[in-house]
User: Fold Kinesin-like protein from Salmo trutta.
Amino acid sequence: MQSDVLDTAEQQQQKHQQLRVYLRVRPFSKDEMSSNEDQGCVVLENARTVMLHAPKGSATMKSSEKGVGQAIHTFSFSQIFGPETKQADLFEGTIKSQVHDYLEGKNALVFSYGVTNAGKTHTIQGSQKDPGILPQALDVIFRHIKGRQYEKMDLKPYLGSDAQYLGPDQVQQERNTKAAIFALLKEENEPPRVSGVSSHSSSTGSLSFSVSYDNTGTSHLQFALWVSFYEIYNESVYDLLQASPTSKTKRRTALRVCEDSMGNSYVRDLKWINVHNSEEACKILRVGNKNRSAASTKMNHSSSRSHSIFTIKLLRIDGTEVQTMSELSLCDLAGSERCGKTKTFGERLKEAGNINNSLLILGKCIAALRSNQSDRMKNGYIPFRESKLTRIFQSIFCGKGRASMIVNINQCASTYDETLHVMKFSAIAKQVVQLIPTKCLESLTPRLMGRDGKPLLKNGVIDDQALENYLSEEELLDEDEADMSILPQEDLMNVIENLRTKLLAERRKNLVQEIDIRKEMGDRHMGCQVAELKESYQEKLENTFEMYKDALKDHAYQRALERVEDDYVPLEEFIAEQEKVEVLDTHFRRLTRSCHNHLIKLSDMNSVNLGSDLQCLHLFNFSLGVSIRESSAMHFETKVLELKPGMSLAYFQLIVSLQKRIAVLNDALHEAGERFFEKTSEIETLHKKLADQVKTT
Ligand SMILES: Nc1ncnc2c1ncn2[C@@H]1O[C@H](COP(=O)(O)OP(=O)(O)OP(=O)(O)O)[C@@H](O)[C@H]1O
Assistant:
C-alpha cells in the first residue's frame, strides 16, 4: 500500500477538496481469531481500493446464490488505512491538513462512522497509551499556540460564530464551572497524562511529524481555546458536561438548536469551557464520557446509540479584539446497525429510526457536498435542516469549511452484511468502483447507429439492409480509392475491383463481429446493471419490509397500551360502585322482608287463602332462583358489556354476580309487588263476599 501512495500534486489537490472519505480497517482481536472470524472478507487492493468478499452463510452470499446481487464488491476511498496503521500515521494521513487549515481560521468537521465495535472511538479518542486523532489534534493545536495563549478567560464564544466579553463576575463563574466539572473526576484514580507529544510518543513511536506553520504576520496574535462536548440521542441534544440527574424520574435537559442573525446554527445553553492545555481538554473529554455512559445506563441504552460531538473553538485575538474564530468538531457517529439486527420495539425502534434517519440525511448532505464540490456552480438543495446533526453543521455543508469521514470497519465474517452496508453508505460519499470499469463498457456498448443515423440492430438482431447501406461503396471508398478508379489500365481496374469486393466482404465480416461483440458486452453491462438494480431493490424491499414489520409491532404495542389506559378503573371508583350495590341490595332486602311480612299478616287474617299465599311465596322464591333470571337475561348481558375489561378478574366476577343478583331481585320484587296487589284485591273481594254472606245469614 505504501508504494501506491498518491503523488504530491494529486495529494495537494485532494487535500483541498471539501470532503474526503477514508477507510480504516481494524485488526482482529484474539477472540475473533480464535472464533474463525477471519475468512478473507476484506481484501485491500491498494491504497484506495478495497474488495469485500461475502463469506458463506452471510445474507449477501445467500442473495448472490439466488442471483440477486454480487458476492464481491469493490469500493474506493480517498485513502485506505490497513489493520497495521498506527494512530500517528492515521492522524498524519487524514486530518492533519484540516487541523492546519483550522489554525489558519477555517472550520473543520470530522466524522467517525461504522458499526458498533468497528473502532470509531479508538479512532477518535484512542486510549491513554495510544491516543486517537482528537488528543493528537489537541497536541498540535497547543504546540502551535504555545507561549501565545490568551489567559484572561474574558473572551468567550457566543451564539453561532460570535464572541462576547465577560465581566469579572462572569469570568469567576466560568472558573467555578470549570472547577466543578474537573471535580467530577477527582474521585477517579487515573495517572496524569503528560502534556505534549512526548507523552505518548513512546507507544506510537512515530509522533514526531513536523508541524511547522507559517506564523509570519500572526506573531502578535493570541489564542483562546474553548471546548464543548454534547450528544444527540433520539434527535435531542444533551450537554455531556452537565452531570446526568441521579434521580430515576428526573430527565436530562434537552438543548435547543438555534440560528443566529447570520444563519449560523448553534446549540443554545451549551457549556463552553476554556482550556489551557491538552490535559485539561482530555479531562473534559473524560467527564463527558463518564456522563454519557451514566445517562445511557440510566436510560438502558448503549452509548453507541447516540452521536457524540467534541468541538474546539479557537479564538484568534488581536489585543482585545477577536479577529477570527474557527471551529474543529469531531463527531463519533452512532453505530450504524440496521433495524433488523437490533432489538426493535418501542424505544429501541424509535432510536433505530432516528439513527437511520439522521445517517440518511447525513448521507444526502454528503452527496450534495460531493456534487457541489465537483461542480461548484451547481448549488443543489441540501437537506441539512432535516436532522439535528446536519442542522448543527449546516455551515460546513454550505461550504464554510472542510469535512472528512473516517469509515471504520472490522474484518469479521459474522458482521459482514453490516460492514457491506457501511461501505455502501460511505460509497454515497465516495464513488463505488464497479468490478468492470464503466468507461471501458461505455466504449464497448453496441454502436447501434450507422453513419446515416439508422440503427444497425433491430430488436437485438443485425438489420441487413442497414448494414448494406453502412457498407455501401460511398461509405467504403475514401477519396484516395476514388482516385484509383480513374486509372486507365483495365487489368489494374479488375484487380482493384476484386480487392474492393474482398475488402467489402472483409469489412462486412468485421462489422458483424464488432456488432456481435458490442452486443455481447452490452448485454453483460446491462446484466451488471440489472444485477446492481436487483440488489439495490432487494435491499430497499428488505428494508421497507423490516420497517413495516417494526411499525406494525410498534402500532400493536401502542394499541395495547392505549387499551390498558382506556379500560383502567380507579380503585376508589370501583369501591364507590360496590357501595352503591350494597345500598341497593339492603334496600331490596328490606322491601322483600316487608312484602313477606305483609303476606303472612294477610294469611293470618284469612287462613283460607294460606295455600295460595304460600304458593305465592314459593313462586316468589322460585323467581329469585331461575325464572326471573332468564327473563332478565338481556338486561344482564347489557350490564356485563358495560363492565370494564381492564378490571381484575375477581372484581369483574364479583360485579357480574352482584349485577345479576340485583337484576333478579328487582324482577322478583316487581313480580312480588304485582302478586301482592292481586292478592290484596282478591282479599278485598273475599272480604266483600264474606260481608255479603254475613248479611244474608
Ligand atoms: N485500530 C485498532 N487497533 C487496535 N485495536 C483496536 C483498533 N480499533 C479498535 N480497536 C479495539 O477494538 C475494540 C472496539 O473499538 P471501539 O470501542 O473503538 O469501537 P466502536 O466502533 O467505537 O464501538 P461502539 O460503537 O460500541 O462505541 C476496542 O477494544 C478497541 O480498543
Notes: The chain has three domains: 2-159+169-269+276-433, 441-548, 571-696. The first helix runs from residue 8 to 15. The two ends are 140 Å apart (CA to CA).
